[in-house]
Amino acid sequence: MTDAADDGVVETSRDGAILRITLNRPSRRNALSRSMTDTLVATLTAAATDDSLRAVHIRGEGSDFCAGVDWVASNAGERRPRTGDILRRQPHTAHRVVELVHTLHLPVVCTVRGWAAALGCNLALAADFTVAAKDAVFWEPFLGRGFSPDSGSTWLLPRLVGLARAKRMLLLGERVSGADAAQWGLIHAAVPENELSAVSDELVERLASGPTVAMGLAKQSMHYGQHASLSDTMIRELYNVELSCRTTDFKEGLAAFRDKRPPEFQGR
């Protein structure tokens, strides 16, 4: 098989209002080639402005989630990248993927089996909910390869599990099982392998049936509050309440409460 043939693809499909994204390069543990990263950026950018979507689900084909960026292929060949290549490219490629997942005004769910390493690990951590097999492996291997961490790992990990555990993963390169990741609060849940698809699908469908606008605003407020004061965050919340009160879903929520029935949100 040629390198071009094994470059991998990012497959997308629509399941009603759910966008399903599959990283498909199982021969390389779904390590992201440049073309795959570019497709992910384009797909998530388009999703950010698609009013018909209500949730995003990301998974890997085969037995692994994602082994990060394919650095071996990226650095193959006789010509060395010019000085400053990483600083010039990464904000628009790997880092942009993490940023889009984190800021998207749609709930994002990752399903992880096997390896979630480097960018693959941080992609899963940037999602709103990650469900993993109990024997999945979360790994930040950067220092073991001789370079410092990137793709948001030094921002995400301390906020999710505290500085001490972040140092264990980043400085010592400790591998964390899916079961331990759930116990630490690093991810949403860890389940037996044979239950992974069903649990993930149930969660995605539940999120996709929610009040999409209000959910996106709540996600924005929580992220804003990570670097703002309580007073500033509550002011941001008021603006978001003002917006969400103008949605059709707000009216439906009130009507359902009055009628003592479950709401049927439309995402508008």
Describe the structure in your own words:
InterPro entries: ClpP/crotonase-like_dom_sf, Enoyl-CoA_hydra/iso, Enoyl-CoA_hydra_C. Belongs to the enoyl-CoA hydratase/isomerase family. It comes from Mycobacterium lehmannii. This is Enoyl-CoA hydratase. One of its GO terms (molecular function) is catalytic activity. This protein is of the alpha/beta class and 268 residues long. It has 2 domains: 7-207, 2-enoyl-CoA Hydratase, Chain A, domain 1; 210-257, Lyase 2-enoyl-coa Hydratase, Chain  A, domain 2, CATH 1.10.12. It has helices at 34-48, 71-74, 85-89, 94-103, 119-126, 153-161, 163-170, 178-184, 196-208, 212-225, 230-244, 248-259; strands at 9-15, 18-24, 55-60, 108-112, 115-117, 129-133, 137-139, 176-177, 189-191. Strands 1-2-3-4-6-9 form a 6-stranded mixed sheet, sandwiched between helices. It has a 3-stranded mixed sheet with strand order 5-7-8. A hairpin with a 2-residue loop joins strand 1 (9-15) and strand 2. Helix 1 (34-48) runs parallel beside helix 4 (94-103), helix 4 runs parallel beside helix 5 (119-126) and helix 10 runs antiparallel to helix 11. The protein is globular and about 65 Å long. The model has no long low-confidence stretch (mean pLDDT 92).
